[in-house]
Amino acid sequence: MHPEVEKTLGFEEFTPIQELSIPSILDGKNCLLIAPTGSGKTEAAVAPIFSMMLDGEESKGIEALYITPLRALNRDILKRILLWGEELGIKVGVRHGDTPQSERTEQSRSPPRFLITTPETFQILMTGKRLREHLKRIRCVVVDELHEFLGDKRGSQLVASLERLVDLAGLDFQRIGLSATIGEPEKAARFLVGVDRKVEIIEAPLDKGMRIGIEHPEGILSDAVIERIRELVLEHESTLIFVNTRETAELLAARFKILDPGLPVGVHHGSLSREARLEAETRFKNGTLKGLICTSSMELGIDIGSVDLVIQYNSPRQVTRLIQRVGRSGHTLDKVSVGTIIATDPDDIAEAAIIVSSDELEEIKIHENPLDVLANQLYGMALTERVVSAPGAYAALKRSYPFRNLKWNTLVRVLRQLKDIGNVWWDEDRKEFSKRRGVYTQYYGNISMIPDEKSYRLVDITSNKGVGTLDESFVLGYGGKGAPFICGGAPWQVVETDEEKLLVKAAPAKDLTGAIPSWVGEEIPVSFDIAQGIGKLREEISKLPEDEAMEWILGHYPIDKNSAQALVDFISDQKETDSLIRAPVPTDRVVTVEMKGLHVVINALFGHKVNETLALLISSVISTRLGAQVLTNVQPYRITLELPGRIKKDEVERTLRSLEPKNVEWMLTRILKNSSAFQYRLVQIAKKFGFLDKDFSRRLPKRVLEIMRESVMFDEAVREVQIDRLDAQRTREVLKRIEKGEIEISNIPFISPIGRAGERYALSLVTPRRADKAILEGLKNRLMKTGIRECCINCGWNSRRSVETIELRCPKCTSQMLAVLSPYDESYKLLKKKRLTREEKRDVRKMAKNAGLVVSYGKKGAMVMAGRGIGPDTASRILRIGKDEISLLRDVLGAEINYARTKRFWD
Amino acid sequence: METLNPIHSKAALEIQDVIVVADLHLGIEEELKRHGINLPHQTDALARELVELCFESNKKKLIILGDVKHAIPWQTSHVRRFFAKIFEMAPELRVGIIPGNHDGNLELDIEERIQIYSNRGMTLNSVGLFHGHMYPSEEVTRCQTLVTGHEHPCLKLGEGIFERCWLRVPFSKKGEKWKDGKGEVVIMPAFNELCGCNSLSLSHEHYLSPLIKRDFLDLEKGIIYLLDGVSLPLREVIDAPRS
Prior knowledge:
- Chain A is α/β, with parallel strands linked by helices.
- Chain A has 36 helices and 30 strands.
- Chain A is 45% helix and 16% strand.
- In chain A, the strands form six sheets. Chain A has a seven-stranded parallel beta sheet, with helices on both faces.
- In chain A, strand 20 (490-498) and strand 21 form a beta hairpin.
- In chain A, helix 16 crosses helix 18 (408-421) and helix 22 (546-556) crosses helix 23.
- By secondary structure, chain B is of the alpha/beta class.
- Chain B has a single domain, classed as Purple Acid Phosphatase, chain A, domain 2.
- In chain B, strands 7, 8, 9, 10, 11, 12, 13, 14 and 15 form a nine-stranded mixed beta sheet that branches.
- The chains are: A alpha/beta, B alpha/beta.
- Chain A binds chain B through residues 420-423, 438, 690-696, 698-704, 707, 770-775, 777-779, 781-782, 785, 868, 893, 896-897, 899-901, 905-906, and chain B through 5-6, 8-9, 32, 35-40, 42, 155-158, 160-163, 166, 168, 192-196, 223, 225-226, 228-233, 236-237, 240-243.
């Protein structure tokens, strides 16, 4: 390496990753560097590049790109790269969304040799006329924080556009990826370099040990938990307290303020303003704060100095996440990383135990053939060339890993959609496409593949400083004037909400019990393997007597006595159910289906994605059958259903057994077509395609939705949800195992203790095809107010009234045999007639049947018979004991619709 | 009384040997575009749907009850394209248009298969047809049953969920005085599903048509019919609490 570089960067001793990687990088090889944060990866990549620049000739263009996620841009390391460049006489530039115009102009006039940028800005660089010229000189591209991009559409977009850069430069450049510890490094490396290129994976040995303990201070967010965290913070120099959601971060921060207002603990998460985050980082780094509550916003290599303890509040949910988070402590290489997991309930403890003891990192799910990214890249191509050859574009895209299996037909379908939208011309015969006017706004307005979340800026009215952002749903649902809430760990009160400017003005307040804002964020999924691991753990515990079980757990897992006791108690409670029927302990091989009234719990240890898939399938079958919505909640260890009406006690089990493995995918597609929750995803994708404008926020006409559901955009939404939320393949495997009897299903007529453990979670809706609550209410009122003639079969008494006010006993003879007839029906006169014709006899029998239904069902019976075209025969089919009102009304509705279709639309 | 027969699950009416539809709003895609929805043209699909409807019910005449086109005051290429498509598929079909408020400058003079009626309506025996944006002619007023469009009635089923519906309302005492007799008005759902929806109300000020605005109809006695035949009293679906 060039000696000047070594001197300037101040290498005295190389870290292991530097030692291993620098020679290969100097050789010009494609490399993937995998090492924990703080191990000198950035220097390992940058130093050889600088060295090669000093050795080579200056080429008047951008020779190296350093691409890093936006939220990692303000790191010290990047500032240092600028300084080093200055000392070495290498021009280094930074360019992102907020780079002032003057600097941009300067950059395109005289380009830096080394440019630090974000993936989004890179997309724009690729279309600038002069910048494109400069990029032709590209020799090397560094992708920083590669692990952030792998399972994300932004990543697919980035590597696809790197292929466009190859075509632009006319040659292959060197690629260097920097990643934290991940599972499947081979896949990540392929992702970085694409197909048909060599790549070297360089992984730093994990010689810095990890010491992780699991604790269970009694109670959920009780003082015991807060007290224990406080103790740990005070015992250490500086502590990072990781939580899984922004809400939890705020909740913990507020609790600390109540318990010990003087405790120097700050809060840091992605919805706080940049200033607030920087301030927290600085204060933590200089020791003013001893503890920092944070979310994954801290996982990126932000410099926060040395940390001697990482606390993880609740299970980290993933092995990868645990390693990346705990890896933040003991920053210098020879120190051991120390972490404490504070687990709050038996599920949480078991999950943490399995994750800590697992050495298998989660698999990486890459978005393959994401069609909105494809659309975006095609737009990008159309922008920069007069006419684009589709086969050329196809070849370039297919070199990238995510699009390596792209089908020509798919490309054509996307091009047709873009043509329909009107942003490109597409000549199918010549296989060429070119831009139309709309493409500019579309491309520049939709550079980012992150869905747009409408959020409000929160401003402190006393200082006019930004505090953070709040989600629209929280602001509109809760944030009326004067409403108290917590943000950044401090209490606020809403002063004014400006819906035009998306602004909430608030004043500092005193009330620490205000609402905790909720932010939209996808749940971190627990994998199938972890969930199954918990099943095996449960089985082990259940096989042993209590004291031996305690010993076994303590011998196998780094867990405190309290935690072990909680696990053992959890299983014992299940075994000692004081009922005639014993509920088995649900394990990896035992599923229990538990039902009490309208409440169903399916204990299934299959992880988030499989359970989500099963929940969707089961609830859709049941909601279609009942014709009303089923509420579901999905956890990695159980599925909860709230039914709209009664079903047979083995119906859920039968439904589960009736799901055919080979039909899973087909069923999912069909269900998603009717799902209203899915619509949100579809809208986001339609925006990326340009079918909907970026700021579109109106109601979609039904017809437009139907058109969208038949397009490639819908295909993309289905593909995306199958990566992010569902797992059809694993679900198929699970169903096969059920078929073969390898997984047992046990039906239980009550909710077992383990089934009840999930009760505190909120339910989400699975809507039936028609949201018809309003119709049913209207129908009920109409039926109840229908004018009828009530007549007594016994004595012939009759009287006009409405269904609502019918008598249940004849006022004259007290018989219950009362028929309800249409006011125009004159057959009641037959009751007093002596000799009846055959037809008249039939009418009387019909009346008797009518009265019989009123005897059995009372007003309900009369109500059903007031339906259009519903006689006693149809009514007796509709009326059944124990049917709830919604199902009953829905069946009346069905009979009326049938009547309108086959007989008469209106009278 | 002539039988008015709504075609199940369509926003179309059979009267004798005629199919009646209202509110095509051809070219509404251009407006949606301004609102950020870049929808491909639907004109051909609409034409096809209408022709199929006429074939299926074996009818040779189609009457469009106003608002053939969407843009005011000019005409977009959609209208010509629409009729070209219609006659390409069904050269025998005869078309009548009762102009609506969107139909100024409707330039169809070249096409003799299209008959344009007065914007104050026409009658089919005892049924009076007019668009609804102005008062009907005396001849139409005398009919027992009046059919109009213009309102795009829809039932709100939940936040952002609407379904098109028919609205049948008898004349009020005031209306009976004005028309000199009893009768009812049938308000048709818009044929083009891309049209905006007007939710229902019991207050006459809420509506667009002068007949309702002037309180000539007894909304309390109105009945709505969803396209599949579900019928509900208007007053029941207005106050029904939503959740």
